[in-house]
Write a structure and sequence with these properties.
The protein has 196 residues and is of the alpha/beta class. The protein is 44% helix and 13% strand.
């Protein structure tokens, strides 16, 4: 089976990173914020402008990309999946990776280094070119059989094409479709895949 795996929110806990570092950024820069319902769109979560969010990522994206650790057991489970005969496709729409310039080159290099440092094995690494973070084209072109994703928009769209494992977070807990399996940890993902 060809298994597609997202990075941010699946291999990492980007939700907690954003909660911790956005609140730090806002306090240190005297920016008012109020945390409401947790949303995939962090501007809505913090009730801040897109400009403030962009400034936040300008300051913290490289730090996040280099230093955020993989979720517990991600490496171990992915290696088990590969040893079971599955092909692993890392498919990411991380910011900047779709750019054909020095910023894009640097971010793609950071992703490759991070995967190596966190011992994430894979057969192919795909940087999605989609501007809206959608990955359906990559799923179809690479004949992916199953996708592991956290973005609620991608989960809904991709579940029309292939079965999707939703790595459950606060911002995607309402994703419910026939082809969506909710999982809460990497070993939960492993158990679910073994049952397919």
């Amino acid at each position: 089976m060809r298994i597609g795996i997202d990075i941010d929110g699946v291999l990492t806990n980007i939700g907690q990173f954003v909660m911790d570092y956005t609140s730090k950024y806002c306090v240190e820069n005297n920016i008012e914020y109020t945390i409401g319902d947790i949303d995939y769109d962090y501007c809505k979560t913090f009730n801040i402008s897109k400009e403030i969010e962009d400034n936040f990522w300008n300051e913290y994206l490289e730090y996040y990309a280099a230093n955020e650790k993989a979720r517990p057991f991600a490496s171990e489970v992915i290696e088990k999946l590969k040893n079971d005969g599955n092909e692993i496709y890392i498919i990411t729409a991380r910011w900047l990776t779709n750019r054909d310039d020095e910023l894009g080159d640097n971010m793609r290099a950071l992703v490759k280094k991070w995967l190596s440092e966190n011992r994430i094995v894979y057969d192919k690494l795909i940087f999605s070119k989609a501007e809206n973070e959608r990955k359906s084209q990559e799923i179809i072109e690479n004949k992916i059989d199953l996708m592991i994703e956290d973005n609620p928009n991608n989960i809904k769209e991709l579940s029309q094409i292939v079965p999707v494992i939703c790595y459950v977070t606060e911002y995607n807990k309402n994703c419910v479709e026939d082809k969506i399996t909710k999982c809460y940890s990497w070993y939960d993902i492993y158990r679910s895949i073994k049952q397919i």
